[in-house]
Amino acid sequence: MGAVPFELIGKRVWVAGHRGMVGSAIVRRLASEACEVIIAGRDELDLTDQRAVLGWMHNQRPEVVVLAAARVGGILANDSMPVEFLRDNLLIETSVLTGAESVGVEKLLFLGSSCIYPKHAAQPIKEEALLTGPLEPTNEWYAIAKIAGIKLALAYRRQYGCDFISAMPTNLYGPGDNFDLNASHVMPALIRKVHEAKLSGGEVVVWGSGTPRREFLYVDDCADACVHLLRHYSDDSHVNVGSGSDVSIMELTRLVMEVVGYNGPVVTDPSKPDGTPRKLMDNGKLAGLGWTPKTALRDGVAKSYAAFLNGEGRGL
Ligand code: GDP
Predict the structure, then answer these.
(1) Exposed/middle/buried for 40, CB within 10 Å: 0-12, 13-18, 19+?
(2) Number of C-alpha atoms within 13 angstroms, CB side, residue 123?
(3) What pLDDT score was predicted for residue 3?
(4) Nearest Cα to 56, choosing from 107, 105, 110?
């Protein structure tokens, strides 16, 4: 890697969404950079309120912004709260990007998600697959908002010359995850369900058929990739942030059971949705920028289970 194109040293970096799983990992990661991290408490600042965000940013004068704040949730929450997933995310993006342009932020990283891609995108999914086909209906509300965020960042780049970039992380997991079974993603759900089945000696219930395939990335690896992109990337296209390999939900269930140490019965619940059949991203662009993930899936699951046992997380 040549000279660092963007220097974080001495910069005031606002991590919006610092209480979430990704935001808190980014705050942890930035602690080893010589920058000043600034955060806004949820009581202090409503990110959906454009006027409030503008005022706060004018006072705080961030030089770098990482937009990790979003209304997020698993397959069920997404499907049952379409207004919150679409409206709140559109409002948050609009407020923060508009504010960032207004106060002359030097660099902004917008975080999206792999669900922006078409349901039947060719695998592994390249960045260019965006908007080439219909979305997965169970999370299209969130996906539409995130696609709008990518385009708004690009629009600011084009029209005002702002150095706004976008990263699309795959399914993330790790300390600080949401373990509320009605709102969580599959990884924290399985950690909780397998743990509780171990305590009761009962069965582990896997939603859907267990056949969908998903890619998982440990959240601290994602945070490291975000810092890498801030420093080394400045271009129009969003960048996939993934681990490069996927597993079936049933394989993941078996892995979680090994880590937790439970060998009881497993059943599927076909009344729950499967969602998109496969979601594996092409990591080539990020690898080309000199970044690769460090945490193997088994190690990440073990760390996540330890954090769960330690009470780190929401919905517990
Ligand atoms: P997705 O990647 O947007 O589909 O979101 P999820 O992480 O919520 O779901 C991924 C896959 O795991 C889907 O096929 C779900 O049906 C399956 N799955 C199996 N058990 C569970 C569970 O307990 N909770 C969730 N959220 N998903 C589960």
Answers:
(1) buried
(2) 15
(3) 47
(4) 105
In this structure, the residue with its CA closest to atom 23 of ligand 1 is: 189
For ligand 1, atom 14: residue with the closest CA = 274
Cα 268 from Cα 92, distance rounded (Å): 37
SS3 168: strand
Ligand 1 neighbourhood includes 115 CB (under 6 angstroms): yes
Rounded Cα distance, 314 and 316, in Å: 6
Ligand 1 in reach of 173 Cβ (< 6 A): no
Q: Which residue has the tokens 């859907």?
A: 208
List, for residues 281-314, the tens digit of each pLDDT value: 999 999 999 999 999 999 999 999 999 999 998 8
Q: Whose CA is nearest to atom 27 of ligand 1?
A: 186
Q: Are strands 64-67 and 107-111 parallel, antiparallel or unpaired?
A: parallel
Residue of 21, 72, 75 to mutate, ligand 1, most atoms within 8 A of C-beta: 75
Quote the CA–CA distance of 230 and 35 in Å, as a whole number. 13
Whether 174 has a pLDDT exceeding 50, the answer reads yes
User: Per the residue annotation, which of 117, 142, 173, 218 is the catalytic one?
Assistant: 142
Residue 114 to residue 123: CA distance in whole angstroms: 12
pLDDT tens digits for range 201-220: 999 999 999 999 999 999 99
Cα-to-centroid distance, 148 and ligand 1 (Å): 24
In this structure, the number of other CB atoms found within 10 A of the CB of residue 10 comes to 10
Is 262 considered catalytic here? no
